[in-house]
Write a structure and sequence with these properties.
Largest sheet of chain B: 2 strands, antiparallel
Strand content of chain B: under 5%
Number of strands of chain D: 0
Order of helices and strands of chain D: HHHHHHHH
Structural class of chain D: mainly alpha
Shape of chain B: globular
Number of strands of chain B: 5
Strand order of the largest sheet of chain B: 1-2
Chains: A mainly alpha (318), B mainly alpha (666), C mainly alpha (481), D mainly alpha (220)
Number of domains of chain D: 1
Mean pLDDT of chain B: 91
Helix content of chain D: over 70%
Mean pLDDT of chain D: 76
Radius of gyration of chain D: 18 Å
Radius of gyration of chain B: 27 Å
Number of helices of chain D: 8
Oligomer: heterotetramer
Order of helices and strands of chain B: HHEEHHHHHHHHHHHHHHHHHHHEHEEHH
Structural class of chain B: mainly alpha
Shape of chain D: globular
Helix content of chain B: 55-70%
Largest sheet of chain D: none
Number of helices of chain B: 24
């Protein structure tokens, strides 16, 4: 009985994240359009795009290797698994113990690894630009992320997301400087990792400062669909990560009654919506920065994370 | 018994070594020799792997120091490193059965290869200072001979020279360390040393051990020889030097500091941690700047050594404060990384060797597109690259994850210095991991992906079966160690038990072979499930899409934002790939400067971009020493050109001085 | 003395008569062969000492210390004679030597051997002095044998410095006698080692101090300790290579042996000042000076001559440190160094002959053209640089480790010097042995036996030392204090 | 040993030192050679006196050797060399004669101090004798060091050996070995020098050491 419910919850989580990801992206786009006094496309546009892409045939460059073809699926799988392990509406998922926060970060890392390789595979200059910049950004974003993980994990005494979420909910953590720093760091990292303004501009192509889009330039058809979907999943993942770390309210738990799950789901939807609105607002109000100012941006994140950890190490009360 | 087997295999290797001198030039010489070494080292590997759990055994041979004899000792630690050494040795031999065929002058390689293996084996089982140092230096000397085997390039001879100097320096440091440990009475046997812990100058011993073992392992700033020497050797030897010999150095450090040396001071951990962190970051940054494939790999060895020493430093710090389990965790992480690194670094060097034989190129800028010509090699190399970049579910990630877990335990350390340093080290570790990932995107992407940049790369062909077998064996190991880390951890635990008197909780009975360092509530990781999830969901997606959505594929020329495709030389190069990172870190660490010569309008000359970078450790540490030596020798050389009368006056003055001494003294 | 079959007498008489015979024998080929035979016989006689060790007379003695050196001496003499046989053949061809000179050469060779053996077995400080003087003079003549400017100049330098040194040594000897006379009474007894060692406790320590100063400087000149070393490099570089081998391998040892004897005397007396610091200072000075000088050498034989100075420094340092370990190491180092260095000179001699030059800049890629010589050179240099498995590594291991345990500050310059020397040696070696071949590629007609024998002994000794020798060395080491 | 013998021996030994100073003072070749002959003669006397006092007949041999070889043969030979090689007649010194003399005095003082301190136990004559011998040895060395041409150096060396002989004979009952060795070493030394001068004559026109130094070791 227990097992069945857990399986159900876990499965539900996986389906939900998959289902919600395009919607979230569509919603963000819609909000941005609104903020920019445009009507914008419907929030379901991403689904239509995906469907169209899936139906189209895939065009491959002559000298595309097997890596180029398999990369999208690997990327998608890695991100999906990662997303499946982040508590969205319920903590204490069945398989949550199979990978902790560090492993999730690493999973995203492997996704990025293959994406960057795919960018280099065709041997075009644009792909190269994209991969090299992506890796440069990542090489700064990942340590910042790890530092953030340190902070949180030290407060919660664990790197297991479910445990952290529970501690954050119940144990009287209270407001902590280091937590705040970590939160800011995570947000900055999230912005960078998802290639949002000001680091990157998801809604543009022919621009020499583009990063993510440059890598996936050669993709088309179902491969592109996979890439798009994984990007949307990644965005969802980050927002739900922020939510479950710093706003873990309403999360259902193993022993809680079935109703709690629906409450959790509702809370989750709300959190996502808020996150999306904030993101859109942020993106409309800030301007894209030069690529070589990105290191400073992420360096700040790294420093914040490190500061938070140091504060914790030095005194456990801050 | 096990020791007898080990020594017997060493003897067999030495015999093979003598044999090689005779048959090196014959047709089947190389196959015969490498086959022998393969069999012998496989036996030795089995011995080590099985004996890991068993109680220690001793053996004394009537050689070595006359009144002491040669002591040999096989305890779990030795057994572990024995297994690592011989695993590397066996697979390198397997690889070399094929690779050795391409050797131009086998007579310069074959005799020294078995000797090198024998030396490493002896170091691990030696149990008195003399035997240890003899084997140690024997190892260095034979590897030196292998480094200079391609002696017609001046670079290699120079590399060998620098290597030999650093090796001798390290040996002398260890010699001094043992001198302190043994005391004036000369109790050189390790047992004697263990009984009498020399409290005086123990810290000096640590410093000497760091210098001695570190110079061989490649700790910054003693690493300068490594990126020169490792690539100079034939690839299977490079694999051994990078993957295995550096581990022997780690063994030496562990043996001295954890086993022979008495109770540690708290700041030892601090020093080791700082060195490890610096080594990790500097190594990977240096690697990013390289475009010689083998040199890049060599610099990555430096980085991984840094990661291993981070683990060791943590273990020391925990051990001082009696946190047994934490120490065991850190040490396990370090040892596991020793194993992992030896696996994937050998794999990567094999791959580079295959590329070298197929194209005759080590320079990535002249390669590209090899994934089409040599797909199998490419796949194996990709696995290795993913493993060294610490990507789940492969083995590199497990050891780094364990190191992180150990770091999480450090806030409970009482010393402020450690508390302040450890998070920074954590950041450094994360940074090096991320940079390693980007470095291997570059390495694999530029070498194997894209389009061929030169005819050699165009006409490359897949390498031979033995090499492929070796590479795939290692690739499989990368995956297995990543998916079933629990088994490896349990396998190692006797060694940690020996050194820190405690070990991690047994892992092998946990459901789904999860690894749980401390408690499930704290952290857990399950490589197997992650692997299964990824494969399942990927296949699921593929099948679903191919089933319900389109599966049609059309080949066309690359889109590239509509720019018609120019020559392959317009691809992103290694240099351009590393440029953003160089801009971020390089200006400080390499004093990198970019100069753009932009001709005036109407000037026909092409614009030029020149980048100058400095090898800071070399320029600040080694160049001055070399200069000083040459200066002094130039000054002293005047004494060669004096007249007899002046020489006589030396005698005269010496006499006067001594007489004065007598007159004053009595 | 009357028993002609006393091996000691054989060791002395065979070379003496041979010297006379060679002086008369016109055919140099025969004398070359006979030279080998004679040396072999002498070696055999020396081996007999192991079997039947004769008691000591007032003039001659055999004890734990000198038995090893006598055997070593005769052995190296034997191998050197083999080497010189194949060496001079070439010298005759290129007309560097005439048969007349060869006659002289062989006679002098045996005469020198006589002198060295006498110095080793002498039980009388005066007799030892005479013998060393004899050996020196013969070597001086050999060094000058090529009659080139450089050879003559080297010989002249050697002669002047050597005679001054020997004079100082004589003064020291007289002082020792003066110190001994009041106790032992006038006569031969007051100069016999055996007597001196027994009764030394009663000697006037101050007198012994003064004597030791003169003896150290006197015999130290022969040993080649800096700053008394000036003759050594040129003598090695300009003389025929067999003589260089004998100089480095034997003469230095003999002189050092003399110093050791007197040091034992001081140690046995007990009230004298400790000679240790003096020897340590001279040793370190020699080691560091020679190590730096190595870098600037162009002449391959001069290079290894300086390395001899360096090793004499190490040995002096070891004995200066004293203590069972260091003394043992010093004795071991003496034997191993003479074997290794002579082996190196053997191969260097052939190399120089084949390439027709001693300039290292004109020699290269040896391992391509002459693999055996090249690898012999590599092994030799590795051994002389103290890399295992070689006996020299064992001795250096003992010296450095024991020193560092007792006086860490002294070990630092020692290690520094060794490291610098290694650097220089391998720098030069790399240029000579590796890289593209330079110079003539004519095949060498070398006799590999000598250096193969030496090097294999050295390598084996690095891993296994026979029991009796260890026992003798340890006994002597304890006597050395 | 009673007073008179003592005084004579003392006088002769002191005289030997004095003559050494005379040698240091010389700056012309022939004069130097003559003074060296004188040195040898004084040595002969001293040795003879020792032989008489200690009634050790073998010392007469030494005396004879000193007289014949050092006082007659060698000076003659040196004169011939000087003529044959027409070495210019005056000796150029490194430092001025005056300074050399001063140094010599310091050396004598030093040797006296050393000997007095060291040989407190020995009988007074032995002490004085050794002190003189040591100073002669040192003066001989000083001469070798401070003279630029070979003849001067050779003479310095031989005066040094005279000092040794003095010491040896002063040491009572020193066995024959030593005298032999000395005679023999002088002999050999002279022969070898002769050979060398001859050979060098073949090559160069002088035995000025600078001429040799031009061909030193590695200066090519």
């Amino acid at each position: 009985m227990e097992l069945i419910r857990d399986l159900f919850v876990q499965g539900g989580q996986m389906v939900i994240v998959l289902a919600l990801a395009p919607l979230l992206t569509g919603f963000v786009r819609k909000c941005r359009a609104r903020f920019q006094r445009r009507r914008g496309a419907s929030i379901f546009q991403p689904y239509r795009d995906l469907a169209r892409l899936l139906r189209k045939e895939a065009v491959l460059a002559e000298h595309a290797s097997w890596l180029f073809r398999s990369a999208p699926y690997l990327i998608f799988a890695a991100i999906w698994v990662a997303a499946a392990l982040v508590p969205t509406f319920a903590a204490g998922l069945l398989f949550s113990w199979s990978a902790d926060l560090i492993a999730i970060v690493a999973l995203l890392g492997s996704a990025r690894f293959f994406l960057a390789l795919a960018g280099l595979d065709i041997g075009t200059s644009f792909g190269g630009i994209g991969s090299s910049r992506e890796m440069m950004i990542a090489s700064l974003a990942e340590p910042a992320m790890i530092m953030m993980v340190f902070t949180v994990a030290l407060i919660a005494g664990s790197t297991q997301l479910s445990v952290i979420a529970e501690t954050m909910t119940f144990a009287h953590v209270g407001l902590r400087v280091s937590l705040g720093l970590a939160a800011v760091a995570l947000v900055l990292v999230a912005v960078a990792e998802n290639g949002r303004i000001p680091v990157d501009n998801p809604s543009t192509h022919l621009e020499l400062t583009m990063v993510h889009e440059a890598m996936v330039l050669e993709y088309s058809g179902r491969h592109l669909a996979m890439i798009e979907l994984s990007a949307q999943l990644k965005l969802l993942l980050y927002i739900s990560l922020i939510a479950c770390l710093f706003a873990p309210w309403g999360l259902a738990h193993a022993e809680s009654p079935p109703l709690a799950y629906f409450a959790g789901a509702a809370a989750y939807i709300v959190k996502l919506a808020i996150g999306a609105v904030l993101l859109a607002l942020f993106e409309t109000t800030t301007a894209k920065m030069r690529v070589f100012r990105v290191p400073n941006f992420l360096g700040a994140a790294l420093m914040l994370g490190l500061l938070g950890t140091l504060l914790l190490f030095v005194s456990r009360t801050l | 018994m096990a020791l007898v087997i080990v020594l017997a295999s060493v003897a067999a290797l030495l015999i093979a070594n003598l044999l090689a001198i005779a048959i090196a030039r014959t047709e089947f010489g190389s196959r015969a020799i490498y086959g022998t070494t393969f069999i012998v080292t496989s036996f030795a590997f089995a011995t080590g792997a099985i004996r890991l759990g068993a109680p220690a055994s001793d053996l004394v041979l009537p050689i070595g120091l006359p009144w002491l004899g040669a002591h040999f000792h096989l305890d779990p630690l030795a057994a572990f490193f024995l297994a690592v050494v011989n695993l590397g040795g066996a697979i390198a031999s397997l690889y070399a059965i094929g690779y050795g065929e391409h050797e131009a002058e086998p007579a310069r390689v074959l005799p020294f290869f078995p000797a090198f293996l024998a030396g490493m084996n002896l170091v691990v089982v030696a149990a008195d200072a003399f035997t240890f140092l003899v084997s140690w230096e024997f190892m260095s000397l034979s590897s030196w001979a292998l480094v200079v085997s391609h002696h017609r390039e001046r670079e290699n001879v120079r590399a060998g020279y620098i290597y030999l100097i650093m090796a001798s320096f390290g040996t002398f440091c260890l010699l001094l360390a043992f001198g302190l440990l043994a005391g004036a009475s000369g109790g050189y046997a390790f047992d004697t040393i263990r009984q009498s812990h020399p409290q005086a100058l123990a810290s000096l011993v640590l410093v000497l051990a760091l210098l001695g073992a570190g110079s061989k392992a490649g700790l910054v700033p003693l690493h300068v020889w490594l990126p020169l020497a490792h690539p100079a050797a034939p690839s299977h030897v490079s694999a051994l030097m990078s993957g295995v010999m550096t581990k022997v150095a780690v063994y030496a450090f562990i043996r001295i500091v954890f086993d022979l040396l008495g109770p540690p001071e708290w700041w030892w951990g601090l020093v080791v941690l700082a060195l490890g962190g610096a080594t990790a970051v500097l190594g990977v940054l240096q690697a990013l700047m390289q475009h010689d494939l083998k040199r890049l790999l060599a610099y990555h060895t430096v980085e991984n050594i840094g990661i291993i020493f981070i683990g060791l430093g943590l273990a020391l710090a925990f051990r001082v404060n009696g946190m047994v389990f934490a120490a065991a965790l850190a040490l396990t992480a370090a040892l596991l990384h020793v194993l992992n690194h030896s696996v994937f670094k050998s794999l990567l060097f094999f791959g580079s060797g295959a590329v070298l034989t197929a194209t005759g190129e080590r320079d990535m800028e002249h390669l590209g597109g090899l994934i089409h010509r040599m797909p199998k090699t490419a796949f194996a190399f990709l696995v290795g690259a993913a493993a060294i970049s610490a990507l789940p579910p492969l083995n590199g990630f497990v050891s780094e994850w364990l190191t992180f877990q150990a770091i999480f335990l450090s806030p409970t350390l009482p010393q402020w210095g450690l508390r302040l340093l450890v998070p920074v080290i954590g950041a450094a570790l994360a940074l090096s991991a991320a940079l390693a990932a980007s470095c291997f995107v570059k390495a694999f992407g530029i070498t194997f992906l894209g389009r061929a940049r030169t005819p050699q790369a165009e006409q490359a062909a897949e390498t031979d079966g033995f090499s492929l077998a070796a590479m795939f064996a290692l690739a499989a190991l990368c995956l297995l160690l990543g998916v079933f880390p629990g088994l490896a951890i349990d396998w190692i635990s006797p060694a940690t038990g020996l050194l820190v008197h405690g070990h991690m909780p047994a892992q092998r009975f946990l459901p789904w072979l999860t690894i749980i360092p401390i408690a499930e509530s704290r952290s857990s990781y399950n490589g197997l499930l992650v692997f299964l999830f990824i494969t399942i969901s990927a296949t699921l997606m593929v099948s679903a899409i191919h089933r319900f959505a389109s599966r049609a594929v059309r080949r066309a020329s690359a889109w590239d934002c509509g720019t018609p495709n120019a020559s392959p030389l317009l691809q992103y190069t290694a240099g351009s790939f590393a440029q953003p990172i160089r801009r971020v870190f390089g200006t400080v660490i390499f004093r990198a400067r970019e100069r753009v010569a932009m001709p005036l309008p109407g000037d026909a000359r092409p614009a030029a971009l020149a980048v100058e970078m400095h090898d800071v450790p070399w320029e600040t540490l080694y160049a001055p020493i070399a200069f000083a030596v040459s200066m002094v020798s130039r000054r002293l050389n005047a004494f060669q050109f004096l007249t007899i009368r002046q020489y006589l006056s030396f005698v005269f003055f010496a006499l006067i001085v001594l007489l004065l001494g007598i007159a004053i003294w009595s | 003395m009357s028993v002609p079959f006393n091996p000691v007498n054989l060791v002395l008489l065979i070379p003496l008569f041979a010297a006379g015979a060679f002086a008369l024998l016109p055919n140099y080929r025969w004398s070359a062969r006979l030279n080998v035979v004679t040396s072999a016989l002498t070696f055999g006689a020396a081996l007999l000492l192991f079997v039947k060790r004769p008691g000591s007379t007032l003039l001659l003695q055999i004890d734990d210390l000198n038995i090893v050196f006598v055997v070593l001496n005769t052995f190296v003499a034997f191998t050197t004679s083999v080497f010189s046989a194949s060496y001079i053949a070439h010298e005759i061809e290129i007309g560097r030597l005439t048969p007349v000179y060869l006659r002289f050469y062989h006679a002098m060779f045996q005469f020198m051997m006589f002198g060295m053996n006498l110095a080793l077995v002498a039980n009388n400080i005066g007799l030892m002095w005479v013998a060393i003087e004899l050996a020196t003079l013969t070597t001086i003549l050999m060094v000058g044998i090529y009659r080139t400017h450089e050879a003559l100049e080297a010989a002249w330098k050697y002669f002047i410095l050597g005679s001054v040194g020997i004079a100082l040594a004589l003064f020291g000897t007289i002082l020792v006698y003066m110190a001994a006379r009041p106790v032992i009474g006038a006569g031969l007894g007051a100069m016999a080692w055996t007597e001196l060692m027994h009764r030394v406790a009663g000697f006037d320590p101050a007198m012994l101090n003064l004597a030791f100063v003169f003896l150290l400087l006197g015999y130290g000149t022969k040993v080649g300790l800096v700053p008394l070393h000036a003759w050594l490099p040129d003598a090695h570089a300009e003389g025929p290579t067999p003589i260089s081998a004998v100089l480095s391998g034997l003469l230095l040892n003999v002189a050092l042996y003399a110093v050791l004897r007197f040091k034992m005397l001081l140690a046995a007396n007990g009230h004298t000042f400790a000679p240790g610091p003096l020897m340590i200072a001279l040793g370190l000075l020699s080691l560091l000076f020679a190590a730096f000088m190595l870098y600037r050498r162009h002449d391959i034989k001069r290079l290894f001559a300086y390395s001899s100075i360096e090793h004499m420094g190490i040995i002096a340092f070891a004995f200066g440190m004293g203590g069972p370990l260091a003394n043992f190491a010093g004795l071991l180092h003496m034997t191993m160094h003479s074997l290794t260095k002579s082996a190196i000179f053997f191969s260097v001699g052939h190399v120089a002959q084949v390439k027709g030059t001693q300039k290292m800049t004109e020699i290269g890629g040896l391992s391509v053209t002459h693999p055996v010589l090249a690898w012999a050179l590599v092994i030799g240099v590795a051994a002389i640089a103290g890399l295992p498995p070689s006996g020299i590594f064992m001795s250096e291991f003992l010296v450095v480790s024991s020193t560092f345990a007792r006086a860490p500050l002294l070990a630092i310059p020692l290690v520094l010097g060794l490291l610098i020397a290694i650097g220089a040696l391998f720098l030069k070696l790399g240029g000579v042995v590796f890289g593209e071949p330079r110079g003539s590629i004519a095949p060498d007609r070398a006799s590999y036996l000598p250096f193969v024998a030496h090097l294999s002994i050295v390598l084996i000794a690095g891993l296994y030392l026979p029991g009796p020798i260890v026992a003798w060395f340890r006994n002597v080491a304890s006597l050395l204090g | 040993m009673h007073g008179f013998d003592f005084d004579v021996a003392h006088l002769l030994a002191g005289g030997l030192v004095l003559v050494s100073f005379l040698m240091l003072y010389q700056d012309r070749m022939y004069a130097l050679i003559n003074v060296f002959a004188l040195h040898a003669v004084v040595l002969t006397l001293s040795v003879g006196w020792q032989a008489y006092v200690q009634d050790a007949p073998h010392l007469y041999i030494t005396a004879a050797i000193a007289l014949i070889f050092k006082a007659m043969v060698i000076p003659a030979a040196l004169r011939r060399i000087v003529e044959r090689l027409n070495i210019h007649r005056e000796i150029d010194t490194v430092v001025g004669i005056g300074l050399t003399m001063l140094a010599g005095i310091c050396l004598v003082a030093l040797s006296v101090v050393v000997m007095m301190r060291v040989t407190a136990a020995a009988d007074p004559y032995a002490r004085e004798d050794l002190a003189f011998a040591l100073s002669i040895v040192l003066l001989g060395l000083l001469m070798m060091v401070s003279r630029r041409n070979a003849v001067g150096q050779v003479i310095g060396f031989m005066s040094l050996e005279n000092g040794l002989v003095l010491a040896a004979t002063g040491a009572k009952g020193m066995p024959l070995v030593v005298e032999f060795s000395i005679a023999f070493s002088v002999l050999i030394a002279f022969i070898v020098i002769g050979i060398f001068l001859f050979r060098i004559r073949e090559r160069f026109d002088s035995i000025e050491l600078q001429a040799l130094d031009r061909f030193r070791g590695e200066r090519r």
